[in-house]
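Q: My collaborator sent me two sequences in one message, no labels, and asked for predicted structures for both. Can we handle them in order? The first one she listed is below.
A: Yes, handling them in the order given. First sequence, followed by its structure tokens:
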Amino acid sequence: MNGRVAQIWRYPIKAHGCEALQQVELSKGQTMPWDRHWAVAHEHSEADGREWVPCANFSRGAKAPSLMALKARLDARTQRITLTHPDLQPLSFLPDGDETGFLEWIRKIMPETRAASARIIRVPGRGLTDTAFPSISLNSLTTLDALSSAAGHTLSPLRWRGNIWFEGLPAWQEFDWIDKRLRIGTAELVVRERITRCRATMANPENGICDTDTLALIEKNWGHKDFGIYGEIITDGCVSVGDKLEVLQ
């Protein structure tokens, strides 16, 4: 049985807005192009852009749920990003050259009890994924349907900040794929691990307000706090919405 790619998303600035794609070119050993290309280090962060560091060094939805309502649009040619949020006027800026304006803009929706956003960084050659290895996150819409049924209301895919969403396979089957190879479009990946989730998923991506205890919901019904899987690209290729997902071994 094969699945089908239903959605593709990237997050140009880690935890600061999502952008839908119809097609993406994937490269061996790399993150999705422009995914988590930048991240916002907070005032207590040790991140300096020289190497990957864990997500605790960055402003993120787990600590500032209002960030979950951000949307992004990246012009890859100019590297200009436009951010929108229901409580703010749109902002268009260059992450590598207009940091001050962004920090003033984002401060309006950041909790006063959390470390303030201090600077935008990037690490040459890789995106700042939550994993120490360059990863692509994959999520099942069927699994999300099962979780929505348990919640009693529809849960948006945007709560989970995944790269590739697929459909047409049984719920939770993706957890059986650890160490297996997948072919998606013309790219191939190895599934490395399950994704253990954080409080960011509790926030409604329409308004940034926490309205569902997703972690308790998963633990109560399935005995863990995992949703989705991380893969590592092992063969270059193109992935488009509608492409087949095939488990190879």
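Q: And the one she listed second?
A: Here it is, processed independently of the first:
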Amino acid sequence: MEVHHHSHTARKKWTHYFWEFLMLFLAVFCGFLAENQREHMIEHQREKKFIRSLISDLSADTNRLGTIIKLRNETAVMLDSFMVLLNKPDAEKFSRTIYYFNSYATRGVAFRFTAADGTMQQLKNGGNLRLIRKASVSDSIIAYDVVNRGYVWGGQDEEEIMDTYRNIAENVFDGRILNAMRDENNNVSMPDYDPPFRKTADAVFRLNYRIHMLSIYNKTLRYQARSLKENAVKLIIQLKKEYKLK
């Protein structure tokens, strides 16, 4: 009778299982680190893309604000001259200039500022502001946005003053003459003669106050436009320095 002996495999030591577990853990951990690093790189690339786009928007803002400041400088001089001529005893002799100044007293569209805020909206509304890793940068971006919106609100108040001016001016100036002063592109030209207008003490008194208010708003918003432009320039410099951009 034959006796069969079953072969037994040698039992593995605990250190073998430990090294297997360690190698598996390291493989998973290294994979996690690689994926995490890849996500960080993608987010950093997105961050830089937003910053470049924001710089482009800010540059557009500074150009527009520069134009607005120039127009407001001209308006400041014009409004002062308008009030002087309107109150002259012989104002009728200067009516062509008075009509011209009247047409420009309420050119609110020329001053209207709409920020190039496409990137800003993406940062705020898309939850992308978290991509800006440096607190000093995100704080500066938010601060600029606050000043920007405050300036826009001031412009809306100015347009309300312009409306009250128009309500008085319609009883003083002849709409037919004002219409003839504008070409098909709405550009204004001064009449080549002194057209009549209704100059009454009450109308002049009321126009004086509205011109005064227009002057106040114009100077205030000119100051704010200068300040906003300075903030935009400073933010551009900060972004370029922090992100080493040219």
